[in-house]
Structure formats: C-alpha cells, structure tokens
Design a protein that fits this description.
Layout: E1 6-9, E2 16-17, H1 19-32, H2 51-59, H3 65-77, E3 85-86, H4 90-99, E4 103-107, H5 112-121, E5 130-132, H6 143-154, E6 161-165, H7 168-176, E7 180-184, H8 191-197, E8 201-203, H9 209-218
Parallel strand pairs: 1-4, 1-6, 4-5, 6-7, 7-8
Antiparallel strand pairs: 2-3
Helix pairs in contact: 1-3, 2-3, 6-7, 7-8
C-alpha cells in the first residue's frame, strides 16, 4: 500500500517540460556575456542541475558565474519561467497518489522563489504539502542538502519515502539520504544514467507513475 507514504517529486523534466524557458535563458545570458552560444540541442544537459554548476562548464571558469546567473534570472523572470508544458498524465498521477493517502512534496534544484509561482501558474501547487528548492543565494543548491532539510523540516521517514526525478542528481541525493528513487525516463536523463545513479526502478510515462510507485513499495528488490 502507498497509504501514508511521502513522495518527493522533481520539477523540471519530471512535472513539466521547461525546455524553451530554461534554454532560452541560458542562451540569453551567454549572449549578453559575449560567450559562445550553443544550440538548444547542445544545451539539453543544463535542464536539472543547479545554475551555479552549469555556467562554469559553459564559460570555462567560475569567474563570471554570478553575473551569468543574474542575466539568466533577468530573462527568466521576464516571462521565460512560464514557457513550459505540464507532461501528459502528471495531473492524473498526482491525483491518484494523493487519493491513495500519500503526502506529496516538490524537491527541485530551482529556487523556490520561482518554483512556487510556476506550479501555481499551472494549477499544480495546491496538490503539495510543501514546495522546496534552494535559496537564491545558493543555500541548499545541492539536492542532497535540500532533501536532508526536507526530512528534518517535515518529519519525513526516508525508509518509507520515494524520490521521483529524471536526472542522476535526483537519484543520488535520495540514496544519500536513505531514500529509494524512481527514475522518470520521460524527462532529460537516460535510463542508463538513472540506473547507474541507483534508481530502484524506472518509469516510462507519468500515466504509469502511480502503478510504478505501488510496485516499488511491494518489491523487496527496491528496498
């Protein structure tokens, strides 16, 4: 049974496809800095990780990271943050999990300053006990720290909770905190990436998510 379980869900690449807004904001920042601007396809890897870990890789050093982050946010706050699409089946999955008695949380690498209005915009916010992300200054930028904070703040029991995300850092953070993870392969991480990170099970579609959660709970191999 899933009743009483705590379910943590990533945002970008798991609940919504944020590709246009995120990649457009990266390209805007790089262009304003006079740096090389990769194509959208070459920037897919930036969806998920914290900005402060991605910009140094694009710029070749960390010297202008804060400037790049500020420019990114200038464009993102200008409207790009809403340039996203809720994945088909997400609402049905959330409603099914909530109906089974689960507590739902968002655990995102996106600062909560942005995550909350985005989820409100798409009428998803009301489905969650809490929406948590890093502070704008980078506090709890690493998802392991964020999940540890959530566990303490909301009395989550890791052994009876699940993290659902599409990238390796979602899975690694869950495992480091004693929590099992479901890899969402409809997002931006590959099945190989998710399995190598330690995902207990993979799920191919939001429409299959409630059933996958039920299977993960029952499977002794997932514990």
């Amino acid at each position: 049974m899933t009743r009483g379980m705590d379910i943590l869900l990533d945002l970008d690449g798991t609940l919504v496809d944020p590709k246009p807004g995120i990649i457009g904001s990266f390209q805007y920042a790089l262009d304003r800095l006079g740096a090389r601007v990769p194509s959208a396809e070459d920037l897919l890897w930036v969806i998920g990780p914290p900005l402060r870990s991605s910009f140094p890789k694009l710029l070749g050093s960390s010297e202008r990271t804060e400037e790049a982050v500020a420019l990114y946010r200038e464009n993102y706050l200008g409207g790009a943050m809403y340039d996203a699409v809720v994945y088909h089946g997400v609402i049905e999955a959330l409603d099914a999990l909530a109906a089974s008695g689960c507590r739902l949380f968002v655990a995102t690498a996106k600062p909560h300053f942005y995550a909350k209005p985005i989820l409100e915009h798409f009428d998803l916010a009301r489905r969650y006990v809490a929406i948590l992300g890093p502070e704008l200054d980078g506090t709890r930028d690493h998802k392991s720290d964020l999940i540890a904070f959530m566990i303490a703040e909301h009395r989550i029991h890791p052994e009876s909770a699940l993290m659902i995300g599409d990238r390796e850092h979602d899975v690694i953070a869950a495992v480091r905190n004693g929590m099992r993870a479901i890899g969402a392969t409809w997002g931006y991480g590959s099945p190989g990436e998710l399995k190598a990170a330690g995902a207990a099970v993979l799920c191919e579609s939001p429409l299959q998510l409630a059933g996958t959660v039920q299977s993960a709970v029952k499977s002794p191999l997932a514990r």
